[in-house]
Design goal:
The protein has 731 residues and is mainly β. It has 1 helix and 65 strands. It is elongated and about 105 Å long.
Length: 731
């Protein structure tokens, strides 16, 4: 016989920073939730999320739901599947569950057993609205028509306070809050009853004492001596010593009606409403900003419903919102990517969801889309649209740049343009002489060198334009001799500090242009292309982005061959691919941080941050807040503010790279089940109980087919958790 102790650890890759937007993840019946109407939600001592609905109690581990319901022939099941309220006693770890018409239930998590009350018990068939557990382990709960109940589990004692016993003005009570010696009871139409546990006396607070409405929907602690109260007409704050009633400082001229759920989180106040969505107040520089979030069928990351029943915060800072149509949860460590997107029919949004180019211009962001330009004032959330009408059906703005004269240059399918801001018009600028053999005018990329030149990477060559005179010189793929540019489409261009041209080609590799000794603007072109089995050559011949590195290195993003590092001294290539941790081998854009330590890479499957010292990657996906996993060629930019911009098929992301730090706090790891010969061990051994609480397991030599299931209970990105398993003294 062997004794086996398993220690589990988990590595969670997640990141923390500040954001201007809120992105919600959702849980619904599609993910396994038993029913859509969320009536209550808590996190237990192990880290599981428990969700009460109109048809079942749900236990969620970040991967799957386990659903508990009433079973007619099982006396140790829930008394009713309609779960209005639940709480866990932090001392005994027992759950107390209030149901509709099924009364009170106790759940022992160590044995996974429900204990409903016998049918003849006074707590068996009542309608429980909300319950709270007192510090002494007793349970307080409200009912639809019978008043306030107080239950003592230690001696099975039940106390009832209502119009007959307790001087209550009504028996129609719903909401409940425990504040030291006082029980705050919210009524339907009669205000607030403050019941003192010691004196058994009541104080009534209603509209005669400045309460904004007598129908109470929610309570929440605002400060050590202040309680927020939500009602059908708005929000009050009540001082807990003298019970002075006022309007809270964060509410301005217009209060929030039907405030059905309240939550205070540091400098934020969350207000859920019954029909008007979610409003978040945030205090900055002694002033409150206000944002309202509504459900939107066109936005997968909007809140689930405008009817909100509960707001809770878990041990890792995630905010869980129970709505009439499932659960929404907000993760602050997923908010570091600002997201600017397209909204159908809304002029205060991008012109189109596909972003091809972007620049930063003082206080504005300029975004090139499939339908033209959009300017964004991020501080005021104001968008202005400037559609581009192409000569054909292609209206895309593929390239954007701003010169030292504050002019905006635009590259399209029809050529090169200056954008007239005052008129909102595109003015065509000739960039080459006409050639009957070359008719393509498309401009893919615009680059400014240190000598006041604009370089344009085009369909059929590259062009140099002197910014002062607007005179141009075109380097065509039809040129001959040593000065011939390879006959491939030019996708991107870079001039390094040695005045060497680097041109990314579609199908032709990377082209190096070296100045002639007698003419600095006459170039001999040398091409590096993939040479099959030569591991020191470029990995793929389609190059979409080029970046100058720190130490005579050129970094090259290829479409299908990953990230290439070119040593300009020996002209050997070093390749980094998915096998080295890169998110995807199809690379669109490259940006380098000011600290020179990291390169950011946009790909077909998210963003990668490559550390130049350790040669390691950290990857980000749509789950982390990206506009999509798929980005677009040309849509990458580093602003003067230090902010990075990456665009893709669903809008634009912006972020400050230095604000993204790794969260080293690991999630709790629990054994969710143990299979003995592919059957749950709890079905084979009665004494095992709940494996969540199992510390050791002793098996005999015949019980040698064992499977362990485990979960890491952090809900940032459950499927992205990585595990290490250690066997101690295992022979």
């Amino acid at each position: 016989m062997k004794s086996l102790i398993i220690l589990l650890s988990s590595i969670l890759i997640c990141f923390v920073c500040i954001s201007q937007t809120i992105r919600f993840n959702k849980l619904s019946i599609k993910e396994g939730l038993s029913q859509s109407s969320i009536l209550s939600l808590i996190q237990d001592d192990k880290g599981f999320i428990w969700i009460g609905t109109q048809d079942g109690l749900n236990k969620y581990d970040g991967y799957n739901f386990k659903v508990f319901k009433h079973k007619i022939e099982d006396k140790n099941s829930l008394s009713n599947s309609f779960v209005n309220s639940l709480q866990q006693d932090p001392k005994s770890l027992q759950f107390w569950i209030g149901t509709e018409s099924g009364g009170l239930n106790r759940y022992d998590p160590k044995t996974s057993t429900f204990y409903p009350f016998p049918k003849n018990h006074p707590l068996a068939k009542i309608d429980i609205q909300e319950l709270q557990i007192d510090a002494n382990g007793s349970v307080w709960f409200t009912t639809v028509a019978n008043g306030l109940y107080h239950y003592w589990p230690s001696n099975d004692k039940v106390e009832i306070y209502n119009t007959k016993n307790g001087n209550f003005p009504t028996n129609k009570i719903s909401k409940l809050f425990i504040d030291r010696d006082n029980i705050w009871v919210g009524t339907k139409g009669r205000g607030i009853i403050i019941f003192n546990k010691k004196t058994r006396k009541c104080k009534i607070i209603d509209e005669t004492e400045n309460l904004i409405d007598n129908t109470i929907l929610s309570f929440c602690r605002y400060s050590d001596h202040q309680i927020l109260v939500g009602s059908t007409s708005g929000i009050n704050v009540i001082e807990t010593k003298k019970f002075n009633v006022s309007i809270p400082d964060f509410v301005k001229t217009k209060n929030i009606k039907f405030a059905s759920a309240l939550h205070v989180k540091k400098n934020k106040i969350w207000v859920g409403t019954n029909g008007y969505g979610l409003t978040v107040f945030e205090k900055k520089n002694n002033k409150y900003t206000q944002q309202t979030f509504l459900t939107n069928d066109l936005n997968d990351y909007s809140i689930s419903s405008n009817i909100i029943n509960s707001i809770n915060e878990d041990s890792n800072g995630l905010v869980w919102i129970g709505t009439q149509d499932g659960v929404s949860f907000y993760d602050p460590i997923k908010q570091f990517f600002e997201h600017y997107n397209y909204k159908h029919g809304d002029k205060n949004s991008l012109l189109d969801k596909n972003v091809w180019s972007v620049i930063e211009d003082d206080s504005l962001i300029w975004v090139g889309t499939r339908e033209g330009l959009t300017s964004i004032n991020p501080s005021k959330s104001i968008y202005k649209q400037y559609p581009y009408k192409g000569l054909g059906s292609n209206n895309s703005v593929y390239a954007l740049e701003r010169d030292n004269q504050n002019r905006i240059w635009v590259g399209t399918q029809d050529g090169l343009f200056l954008f007239n801001r005052s008129k909102g018009k595109y003015e065509n600028i000739p960039y080459r002489t006409k050639n009957k053999l070359q008719q393509e005018n498309r401009v893919n990329h615009i680059y400014f060198d240190e000598k006041n030149n604009l370089w344009a990477a085009c369909k059929e060559g590259i062009s140099r334009i002197t910014l002062d005179s607007l005179k141009h010189e075109f380097y065509s793929s039809l040129d001959t001799g040593n000065y011939q540019l390879p006959n491939y489409e030019c996708k991107t261009i870079l001039v390094d500090k040695e005045n060497v041209l680097w041109i990314g080609l579609i199908g032709g590799g990377i082209c190096k242009g070296v100045s002639d000794a007698d003419n600095e603007y006459k170039y001999q072109f040398i091409t590096h292309y993939n040479e099959g089995e030569d591991t020191l050559s470029i990995s793929n011949n389609t190059v979409l982005s080029v970046l100058e590195g720190n130490n005579q290195d050129i970094w090259i993003g290829t479409y299908g061959g990953g990230l290439n590092q070119l040593n300009t001294e020996n002209e050997f290539f070093k390749v980094y691919t998915e096998e080295n941790g890169l998110a995807n081998n199809a690379i669109y854009g490259l940006l380098k941080e000011d600290n020179q330590e990291n390169i950011w890479v946009s790909t077909n499957f998210g963003l990668s941050r490559f550390n130049l010292k350790t040669n390691t990657f950290k990857n980000f996906s749509e789950n982390d807040g990206l506009q999509s996993n798929e980005f677009n060629n040309g849509a990458y930019y580093k602003g003067a503010s230090g902010k990075f911009y990456f665009g893709g098929i669903n809008g634009l992301n912006a972020f400050m790279p230095e604000n993204i730090n790794q969260n080293t706090i690991p999630p709790k790891v629990v054994i969710s089940d143990i299979l003995l010969f592919n059957e749950s061990i709890t079905d084979k051994i009665d004494t095992i109980g709940n494996t969540n609480y199992l510390k050791t397991l002793t098996l005999n030599h015949k019980q040698n087919n064992v499977t362990f299931k485990f979960s890491a209970l952090h809900y940032t990105h459950s499927k992205g958790n990585k595990y290490k398993i250690i066997f101690l003294n295992f022979l």
